[in-house]
Structures are given as structure tokens and as C-alpha cells.
Amino acid sequence: MRQVRRQTRRYTRVGSYCCALALILGLAMPAFGARLKDIADVEGVRGNQLYGYGIVIGLNGTGDGKIDFMTSSLSNMLEKMGLRVDAKDIKVKNVASVMVTSTLPPFARAGSKLDVTLSSLGDAKSLEGGILLFTQLRGADGNTYATAQGALSVGGFSVQSGGDTAQKNHPTVGNISGGAIIERAIPFDLFQSRRVRIVLRDADFTTMTHVVSQINRELGRPIAVAIDSAAVEIPLVADLAKDPISLVARLEQVEVEQDIGAKVLVNERTGTIIMGESVQVSKVALAHGNLNIVISSENQVSQPQPFSQTGQTKTVQNADVTVGEDKRSLSIVGGQVTLGELVKALNALGASPRDLISVFAALKRAGALQADLVVM
Length: 376
Fold this sequence. Notes:
The chain is an alpha+beta fold.
């Protein structure tokens, strides 16, 4: 009996350890799902771009000055106010011509406010301290959807004096927070077609398969149908047609496993490189050498001896040019390795981020880089 009890206790302990291990492993499993609202959009829910031509006044001598289209605009505006002034006689530096841009959000209603951005059209030095006069903002169809006016906010300055210039940020671009008022809304019925179509931001057949599966699981019926690798359609039938807003809210919270292709993003201007974890490189031999050119100059002054009656003081510049090349041997890179091992192998070559951009471009042309190379 004692032996049986001991074996029973031993099996109980082993079973407890296994359950605890399974629980720990279950908690340690990472969640790869992303909400559908973070990777897709509802078709039809979009903004509309607006633009308009405006005049900024009140500048402290940093305006356009005498520019033909600006003086003509100012002359026309004054004529509408009952004051006739020839455009040739207008020369003011406190006025600047600007383009006003904004985006009309979806389902916007008349009376709501928008943020607007102003960009100089002429040769204005700065828009700091300016006020935008009444400006109509039009859409692609030519209709006016909003009007803008107000004081600008410029996050920079430009100062000139005696040939010296000091500038911070970009003083010829400003914005007005809530500076535009919506005058009319764009008529649109989202559910007029009796269906909801969701469009992936990055089209992918594998991800679309997961989307359809998860939506059908959420709704409890095989109703979602994939149109292509980017769009899935859910018809508004039966109980789904009673509250389509709640349906869209439910669909936005559906978690989907996103299948991301292998990509390498490089930016030559900043030397930035971003690689996904699925990037692989076939086994290749790689050598990388840097050509170093150093140019140094030294100014020397030659002048006559003290109390000398002849001779002039002259400055002589001596330049020294040194050219060298780093010696690099062939290294084996790639194969069935992880991203960390690939980065470690590339760093062992001693290449800078800008050099690595050239290396990745060469690997892609050689067919060894098993990923899309995107140059920004």
C-alpha cells in the first residue's frame, strides 16, 4: 500500500509539473493577430482633398513684393471693395500669395472645422505674423466645400542683417488650427448597396484567406466572400441589415494573422535600413572595400624680413591628397540563417549603413537576396 501511494504521489507531481509547463508555454505563446481596423479600411470611408488660392496680409516686410499674379489678385480684391487700383502701381512687401490645402474627412457635416495648411507661392521670405483673408476651398469637382480665414502659426523664423542669415525650420509654410469651416457636406450613403466591403491596405492572398475565415467565425456563418487579394464582401442580409454600424464595429475588432512578405527598405538620404524577419540571403561570397580620399590644406604666410624696403606679404596654400583603400577579403554570407545572424555577418564586414545599401542592391541583382528591395 505504501509503495502504491508513493507511486501515486510521484505521478501526481509529474502531472502537476506537466500542467504547469503547458500553462507557461501557453502564456508564452506570442499573439500574431492584428485588428482588422489596423490593416484594412471600409470601402467608401475616405477623405476628400480641398485646395484654394489665398492672400496673407500683415507681414513685416517679408512678403512677395512686386509679383505679377499677386499684384493682380490684390487689385481685383480691392476693386470688389470699391477701390480701383492699377496692378502696376501695387508694390507691397507685407502681402504674400499662398495655396491653402486641407482634407475633408468622411461624414463631415456643415459647421464643423478643419485644419488648413498654407504654402507660399511667390518669393516671400516668411509668413510669420500673417493673417489669411477669406479663402474658398474647392474640391476636385470645382465646388466650394469650406472657407478659411484666420491668423497663421509658423513654427520657424528667418532673419537677415548685413548679409548674415539665421533660419529655423521652414518659415514659408504655416497652418491654422480649425481655420476652415465646412459649408457643405458630400452626400454619401455607405450602406446603399446593401453590402459592406473591406479593403486590405496591403493586398495579399494568404492574409485575405485568414480575413475571410475569421469574419465567418465571428458572424457564425459562411457569409464573407473574397473578391480578390485586397477586398472581402459581406452582404447585409437578415439580421445584419438591422444595425450595419454595429456590424462594422464588430468586424473592426476581428483579429487576423497577417502574412507579410520579405522586404528590405533602404533610404539613401538618411542611411536607414529596415529588414523584416523573413528576409533570407542565399550563400554568396562577398567582399567590400572602401576607397578613402583625404584632402588636407594648410595656409602658410610668406613675408619680407623686418625693416626690409621691398617685398610683400603673401599667403601660400599647400594641399596634400592621400588616397587609400581598405583591404577586404571575401566573406561567406547568407544561407539558411536567421535575421540576427545575417546582420552580424554584414556588420563583420565593417560596412556603414550607406555601404550596406550598395551591398543589398548588389545582392538583389545577383539574385541572392530573397526579398523585395524598396528604395525610398
